[in-house]
Model the fold of this input.
Amino acid sequence: MARAPLLQLNGISLTFGGDPVFDDLALVVQPGDRVALVGRNGSGKSTLMKVMAGLVEPDKGERTLAPGVTTGYMEQDPDLSGYETLGDFAAAGLPEGEEYRVAMVAEGLKLNPETRIDAASGGEKRRAALARLLASEPELMLLDEPTNHLDIQAIQWLEEHLRSTRAGYVLISHDRAFLKALTRATLWIDRGAVRRREHGFDGFEEWRETVWAEEDEARHKLDRKIKAEARWAVEGISARRKRNQGRLRALAAMKADRASQIRRQGTAAMELESGPTSGKRMIEAKGISKTFGDRVILRPFDLRVQRGERVAFVGPNGAGKTTLLKMLTGELEPDTGSVTLGSSLQMAVFDQTRAQLDGNASLWENLTGDPLLGVSGQADQVMVRGTPRHVVGYLKDFLFDDAQVRAPVRSLSGGEKARLLLARIMARESNLLVLDEPTNDLDVETLDLLQDILGDYDGTVLLVSHDRDFIDRVATTTIAIEGEGHATTYAGGWSDFQAQKRPEEAAVPKPPAAVSAAREKPAAKPAAGGLSFTEKKRLDALPALMERMEAEIAKLSELLATPDLFRVEPVKFRKATEMLSERQAALAAAEEEWMLLEDKASGG
Done:
């Protein structure tokens, strides 16, 4: 016997400030559903989820919850007022004697229930809200960006927890890997309408492009038909027109239908431009370390970052990723060792707390001045990579409308704040881009665009992120910080790092003495084919590295094939030529190294 749906929405219409968010919307959530809720920033995902949770009353329509069904909603900005500790908040509503549920999920989410509310960070409060939802074990879970402020280990724990639950859930998330691993259906919000696809997030982009292509074809056909009918209406014989009033009414209806079609929102017109060419060596760290009190953040560590590299820093929250980043950029002095920065550095920083934005100032003021430093922001223009642009026009490039320009930043969503900060950064030339958790709150389309921009960026990128898919798409080098001060450098992105590390490295890091002993006796761990462990690891990493180089060479060759590039953009032509020569030389060296190691592995 079929079970009744957990939740139904019928005829839902909702308007905010005169603009319709939804009109005659309908959807159903079935028992055991595992649904990705996707759409552009500002499309209404969080609003729809609040309607599903019964927290927002629609203007029209009805919400029907199956009898006895319990729901749980995790919002992005939970209100914890009235509670003393995070644990008190998370345990609220649980039956007496079942507070242990909070302790179980708190361990996986790396949440300390004893933390006082007034001392908790925004990320800790969000984890407490997630712990509260999971501990209550509702039959329908509504999760709005649950992976924000979770490190990769906690995200993987949450994946396993949700994979094993019998409850139904709806997920909003920017994390592709998370959505692909968990969802079996997709709800796509697009211009006030919701489409459902009975497949998980994997393949969503292909489905979206197919829908849009069909929509464009239908629109073109309608335009052609309107044009033909309009010509008939003008040129037709008046006597015949009298007998074809129905045809004229049909033409009017077609025009009204075409006028009512809502234009798709484009992608943000983001662009990065490199500053002066820096030296080949951007950053060199030798023997740097850091300790706070009795806690070792980083043991002596060496790193050399070359121009054009994309270096990702991964590890648990609190392991020291941001601290290492600050030492490498000169913001924080190491306890030991030295950091040498290359010549002609122009740095742009995207900080995870969005601290560069003043929430009480408008978008205009944040873009043209620096309210936090008392610098007035009343100018009509902003310098964008050396060219004056009107503030409103530049903000429209980042998908902000006229009504938002003078609004306070605090009124923006998380994704909109991230876009505004990107607008500030991209207005300046840079050759070293520091991105600390840039992916939080950005929609899939903006993440795609940011990835493409970073791929074309001539400068160097230092990236801290917990988004495994984004790291895979962007990083050429990954530095894993896994606790007790240990940092290890791997070639490639997240998947490369996972493939390269030894089984014992995936577990809790060894005590320093054990690590030293292992380093002193490399021969104790035999490697296949007569290769040392280091050589075997290098051999495994080289194919992915060569593939990346080949892709970069192909992209540069395509750029240099652009007609008149040398005449129209001589600087860009020169830079591309230099980069192509460097990539070709590096590929040749990598191929030679790979052949030598292959010969050695086969006993040649």
